[in-house]
């Protein structure tokens, strides 16, 4: 009897904690969503649920001349998509080469990549800025795409770990059947690495979608901005004066990422745990 | 019979491609000759100037001068000299590698001919490259992009730490920048104003990294164990809810948090008011600001740890628990003797890497508090600033580029030490074979 009641106690307690934690996890998201429908512009609200919900803030984001939300959305979508394609391509081919082939200098390349990854990225930003200035690429989307894509190569160790786990007998069998390296890569390895490709694509897309530091440094004119830069500008200029507008903007930025995330959750978790067992 | 290999080698040393032409590989030879020509046109006017630029960083600052009837800007811009010099030197390094490969190729083909073979046609050469040098082919494009957009900037940033490139006295084009050796590092440690800030920020960075790692890690274990209990229902639902903070971009969630914790109008203080409690200065008091960043970091970080640890938990062999039950172990004993050691063992390397990540946790600090509240006796830093956010401020707000680079190098040394240590440890773990 006492074990049974202690079991109930434990279960009740567990459920209470689980529900409280769930509320904590969801609260900020729900709060900002509700705030975005609240009339007026102040941060302070007397009730959690807005009394007269309105979508005016969303309308204003796209129509007001001081925001160019439509343009920014399009810019961001363009930059993030091209970055995603380019960095998935670069990461996949380089990690495939480093994982499946043994050649002179391979070990040194891997060590060098690890070392480069240990420098804080802001340290080199000023040099990249001067380089872009010299190449006349400031205030262009090309600059962002190039820098994001080349930066993603160094973060590709998870992909290498993935290719390491595919048995070698697979390529050897294909070689005996007369396939060349390119065919093996294209016909056998790429289809096998779909979860990994999805993971890389998703992380690079999100990375480009939310970066505001480098983008703010490079993009000077307002019509070239990305969402994150516009958002940052909105926050630093009128966080307190126009909070509900900020909330609407925040929802619009977060929603696409969350939808992507929901679809790809399985792959993402796989990618994360794959990285974990490799260290 | 060493005639061909000798002649071909000497010719290819004289100029790229000549050896190949001698070996009757005309397409390759002409292509290499073209590379040589382009190289000469590019390097002859630039290389000497580039090295002069890197060594001296310019001899006179930019100023206006009358040339003929126009006013023209003349003089040197130290930083442009440095970056252009680096680019030329790097391109020259690539050129030199191609040159060496060209000589080796001429020698090999000459040897092949000495032994009575016919020189390979261009089609055979290409097929050979695609077969034997496939990984190099794949790596060329990524390597070039990394060389110019990552390696070159890092080299330049390291070099800047040894110059006096900083506001207000050494900002080109009006002023020149000079090499100063280790002076920047000495200033950082010995000048009272800098060293006080450096030690303060450094100590807080370490404390922050320890607390942030421990709270998110053990928080993750607790949450994972909680929903992994065999008689909890709707596991999938709870898991999905707990992943939500991970799915929201940090840019958004942290800015939202900044509003939630707003001292005057934020809902958190509003709710505390309902319970008859006074509001707390969440973001404006040095102590409470530190508490806030740690709480918010738990909200951001626990989901990641939870996902990781749930993955590890499913990998624990069930028979271990069954055996323990046969021996009459209580649930708590099972947890202590089986679950925890297993989880700790499997995630130890991740733990160290998370610690390293937290040292560089830019987003949480920058977006939530921006390093504030400002501390009067700090040089351009606030109470919650980490080394990395301080570096950011020094670069982008205060133009103290040399100091920022020096701090970057120090961060690098810390992270590198940690990584080597973690690598050694995980290796020794593997050798011990703790878990079969």
Explain this structure to me?
The complex is a heterodimer of chains A (279) and B (436). By secondary structure, chain A is mainly α. The longest helix of chain A has 36 residues. The radius of gyration of chain A is 24 Å and the shape is globular. The two termini of chain A are 47 Å apart. The C terminus of chain A is likely disordered. In chain B, strand 1 and strand 2 form a beta hairpin. In chain B, helix 4 packs across helix 5, helix 8 crosses helix 9 and helix 11 crosses helix 16. Chain B has a two-stranded antiparallel ribbon with strand order 1-2. Helices cover 72% and strands 2% of the residues of chain B. Chain B is mainly alpha-helical and 436 residues long. Chain B has 18 helices and 2 strands. Chains A and B meet through helix 1, helix 3, helix 4, helix 5 and helix 6 of A and helix 5, helix 7, helix 9, helix 10 and helix 11 of B.
Write the layout of secondary structure elements.
The complex is a heterodimer of chains A (279) and B (436).
Chain A: H1 2-36, H2 56-63, H3 69-100, H4 106-116, H5 121-134, H6 141-154, H7 157-164, H8 169-176, H9 181-192, H10 194-210, H11 213-218, H12 227-238, H13 243-278
Chain B: H1 3-14, H2 18-22, H3 26-43, H4 47-56, E1 63-67, E2 70-74, H5 78-114, H6 122-132, H7 134-160, H8 183-190, H9 192-228, H10 235-247, H11 250-260, H12 267-274, H13 286-314, H14 318-326, H15 331-359, H16 362-368, H17 387-396, H18 401-432
Antiparallel strand pairs in B: 1-2
CATH architecture of the largest domain in chain B: Orthogonal Bundle
Task: Give me the oligomer status.
Answer: heterodimer
Beta percentage of chain A is: under 5%
The top-level CATH class of the largest domain in chain A is Mainly Alpha
- Quick check: average pLDDT of chain A? 84
